[in-house]
């Protein structure tokens, strides 16, 4: 069902099952042509053995599914079911079902967090952040995005957020002076076939100028398949969309790839910004990230700014923009009406 399929292998032991998984992965990894595009397919495989891991079809399928999730989380190509190691309980799988229903039904909410220029305090744009109202509690993205990233659900979620954000915020983006809207894009979505064509269609449908949209990708997402990322990012840039590397300074991006990627902005991760004022070595890392970003001709944004001291340090060290609770908490679109374009907002 969906993007999942199962093999039932008779009279097969653990070693033979592992060999079969490796051969399947090898076949899927071969690139192929689809509508003139070179396409790659990745997969994660979970393995359950009879009778050690279950004595019924339903039990074996469930445990193979749990093993597949562990393979995704741990970054392996395949994994055997292990009840001692598996963090995926019945409750955890039930939570994924609920999240899938919420995404499919369009029940996620969006909040918008402002980004401020350090030169004059002007608000230059907003980042759209997803929220899930579950059992009366509003969950932040960090509470459910990792769950979505373990499956193809993240691609549907990404697309729903992007469509909703562009539709909701188009009037805000048309303000004077014009603002920008930042939306996160997962590694799975970045490498999905047809991304550029779908995005071009969506921008046309919503009437949003491509230059008003900033797609944020993490260092780790860009470097998962660097060659494919390079091709896709250049195609997005040719569309007119602006590109930002999120969580900058926490990944392992090659300087060669960074130099050649068509980025417009890097966002220094909040975990580094929090070290300002308490860890001199951490401050040197932030100072180096700012210098590296500027050396590549990019805008530099400091994330997770929560104190005036952090904002002042970033200003004094040449950072271009800041984002965080000091500037403004994420709020629904309706609460942004009172924030005039270009106005500063402290807190």
Structure overview:
With 347 residues, the chain is of the alpha/beta class. Helix content is 42%, strand content 19%. The protein contains 13 helices and 13 strands. The protein has helices spanning 14-28, 57-74, 90-104, 145-149, 153-173, 187-190, 195-206, 219-224, 226-239, 255-260, 270-273, 280-295, 308-316, and strands at 32-34, 37-39, 45-47, 78-80, 109-117, 123-134, 137-140, 180-184, 213-218, 242-248, 265-268, 299-302, 321-323. It has an eight-stranded mixed barrel with strand order 5-6-8-9-10-11-12-13, surrounded by four helices.
Summarize the structure.
This protein has helices at 14-28, 57-74, 90-104, 145-149, 153-173, 187-190, 195-206, 219-224, 226-239, 255-260, 270-273, 280-295, 308-316; strands spanning 32-34, 37-39, 45-47, 78-80, 109-117, 123-134, 137-140, 180-184, 213-218, 242-248, 265-268, 299-302, 321-323. It has 347 residues and is an alpha/beta fold.
List keywords for this structure.
alpha/beta; 8-stranded mixed beta barrel; two-stranded antiparallel ribbon; 13 helices; 13 strands; 42% helix; globular; disordered C terminus
């Amino acid at each position: 069902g969906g993007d999942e399929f199962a093999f039932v292998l008779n009279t097969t032991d653990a070693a033979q099952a592992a060999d079969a998984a490796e051969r399947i992965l090898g076949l899927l990894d071969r690139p192929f042509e689809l509508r003139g595009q070179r396409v790659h397919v990745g997969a994660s495989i979970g393995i359950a053995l009879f009778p050690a891991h279950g004595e019924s079809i339903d039990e074996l399928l469930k445990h193979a599914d749990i093993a597949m999730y562990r393979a995704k989380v741990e970054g392996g190509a395949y994994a055997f079911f292990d009840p001692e190691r598996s963090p995926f309980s019945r409750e955890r799988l039930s939570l994924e079902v609920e999240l899938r229903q919420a995404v499919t039904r369009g029940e996620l909410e969006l909040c918008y967090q402002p980004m401020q220029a350090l030169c004059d305090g002007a608000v230059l744009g907003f980042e759209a952040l997803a929220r899930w109202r579950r059992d009366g509690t509003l969950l932040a993205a960090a509470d459910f995005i990792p769950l979505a990233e373990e499956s193809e659900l993240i691609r549907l979620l990404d697309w729903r957020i992007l469509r909703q954000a562009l539709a909701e915020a188009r009037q805000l983006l048309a303000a004077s002076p014009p603002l920008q809207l930042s939306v996160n894009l997962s590694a799975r979505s970045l490498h999905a076939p047809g991304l550029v064509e779908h995005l071009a269609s969506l921008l046309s449908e919503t009437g949003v100028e491509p230059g008003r949209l900033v797609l944020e990708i993490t260092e780790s997402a860009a470097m998962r398949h660097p060659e494919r990322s390079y091709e896709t990012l250049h195609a997005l840039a040719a569309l007119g969309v602006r590109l930002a590397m999120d969580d900058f300074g926490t990944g392992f991006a090659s300087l060669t790839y960074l130099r050649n990627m068509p980025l417009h902005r890097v966002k220094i991760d909040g975990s580094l910004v929090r070290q300002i004022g308490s860890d001199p070595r951490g401050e040197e890392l932030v100072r180096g990230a700012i210098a590296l970003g500027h050396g590549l001709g990019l805008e530099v944004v400091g994330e997770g700014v929560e104190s005036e001291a952090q904002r002042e340090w970033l200003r004094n060290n040449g950072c271009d923009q800041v984002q965080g609770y000091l500037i403004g908490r994420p709020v629904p679109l309706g609460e942004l009406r009172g924030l005039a374009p270009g106005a500063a907002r402290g807190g």
